[in-house]
Amino acid sequence: MNKQMKLAAVAAICAAVSAQAVAAANTDNALPAPKNVPELMKTFAGADVKTREDWEKVRAPELLACFEREEYGKRPAAADERGRVSFETYRETEVFGGKAICRHVRVKYDGPNGKHVFPITAYIPKAGRPVPAFVYIGINFLTKYDAEGAVATSEYWPVEKIIDRGYATAAFPVIKVAADNKNAGFSQGVFPAVQPAKARGGDSWATISAWAWGASRVLDWMETEPAIDAKHVGVVGHSRGGKTALWTGATDKRFAMACSNESGCGGAKLNHIDLPKSEHIDFMIRVLHHWFCANYRKYGGKEMEMPFDQHEMLALIAPRLLCVGSATEDHWCGQLGEWWSAKLASPAWELYGKKGLVGDTWPDPEKPQQEGSVSYHLRTGKHFLTPYDWDRYMDFADKHGWRPAQR
Predict the structure, then answer these.
(1) Per-residue DSSP letter, 403
(2) Are the C-beta atoms of 365 and 377 separated by less than 8 Å?
(3) Given this model, what pLDDT does residue 238 score?
């Protein structure tokens, strides 16, 4: 497909998006369409990407390198060396009337520049067989914690519901991995154990990348746990945790699913679209610059000029499963832009003979689009991670045969 045909196809999809799809449009009368979106299936050198081999050998690696260099930062190799990580179970109890085990685990990282420790709290159903699981990115002001770690009383993490649906789940408190503080200067958490501050550069890893590192260490532990089916593990995050879940899925191919709940700018939201009520890069780099590498600052106020965009990061999750969730009143996250990213990322799945996001219009609330390998749903309500959202993510896993009875 040549460039003109691709642009015509995008224009056709734009025209098909119904102004009545959602009452929460970011403009008064008509839904905006993307503009000058970087082409997913064309390399930075201008070559067409036509095959799976083109994608895997050229396009996906250059996109990953771009996002590492320009947005999230590149982790030092020592951070991901498996031999540096060990685990210690320090407490285990029966919960939910004996339906499940709650296990508290310490992750110990022996870095080249020091040591770092953070806790995992895991809940595993007594199923008598390995079960699939979800890693929850535990943002601290959303999830309750006690002296032992995360507890299962948070509305954002409905553990008993997850257990009853046949899944295990584990969470870690992100601030125990990296401080959510723009003034910390990367002097806390795992950063000083890996790399001296003086060695940092414009493309050095930042907080979202560190949190994604923590999620990967949770999966390291799951791979040692016989009661968990580590080949079927998803990562779920809300808001900044949703940004982290996507970057986790993009950088760690062991995760079979990545679920972004209302992740907005720097997450699922497309930048090349005019959504005035949504967060923008300029806000990110002024208020929350510690989430991203220093190189990202050059894109403040220049979304429409960027040579890359978030649909290309979402596409790095292909051919694995991807879920994107939005809420009707959450204009800050740019709901329509989140749908567009999922839609425009879909050609990556097609290279593998799979369907991406099936549906050419932005759906009505509570009408999830889950027929392909990319799921999108819009929930009525505000910026929140609800049991409804969790059910959609588990429904999608069910559709793809994750639970033992379905395989």
Answers:
(1) S
(2) no
(3) 96
Calpha distance 291→72 (Å, rounded): 7
Domain boundaries, the chain: 41-402
- Single-letter residue type at 200: R
CA atoms within 13 A on the CB side of 276: 4
Helices within 130-206 (DSSP H only): 159-164, 191-194
The pLDDT value given to residue 218: 98
pLDDT at residue 19 in the model: 29
Pick the closest to residue 168 from 126, 198, 210, 140 (CA basis): 126
Question: pLDDT tens-digit profile of 15-33?
Answer: 333 323 333 333 334 789 9
Question: What 3-state DSSP class applies to 190?
Answer: coil
The 3-state DSSP class for residue 26 equals coil
Instruction: Assess contact for 71 and 266: CB atoms under 8 A.
Output: yes
- Cα torsion at 147, 228, 236, 205 (round to 10°)? 80
Q: According to the model, what pLDDT value does residue 25 have? A: 38
pLDDT tens digits, one per residue of 178-191: 999 988 889 999 99
Instruction: Indicate the residue type of 155.
Output: E
Eight-class DSSP state of 178: S
Tell me how far apart the alpha carbons of residues 207 and 243 are, in angstroms, rounded to a whole number.
11
Rounded to an integer, what distance in angstroms lies between the CA atom of residue 46 and that of residue 31? 30
pLDDT of residue 184: 84
CA distance 365 to 154: 24
**How far, in Å, CA of 168 to CA of 241, rounded?**
19
Residue ranges of the chain with per-residue pLDDT less than 70: 1-29, 140-154, 404-407
Q: Helix or strand or coil: residue 388?
A: helix
Q: Domain 41-402 sits in which CATH superfamily?
A: Alpha/Beta hydrolase fold, catalytic domain (3.40.50.1820)
State which H helix or E strand residue 335 sits in. Answer: helix 335-345
CA–CA dist 334, 276 (Å, integer):
9
Distance CA 8, CA 13 (A): 9
Count Cα neighbours of 333 within 13 Å in the Cβ-side half-sphere.
31
Taking alpha carbons only, the member of 127, 131, 120 closest to residue 99 is 127
pLDDT of residue 261: 98
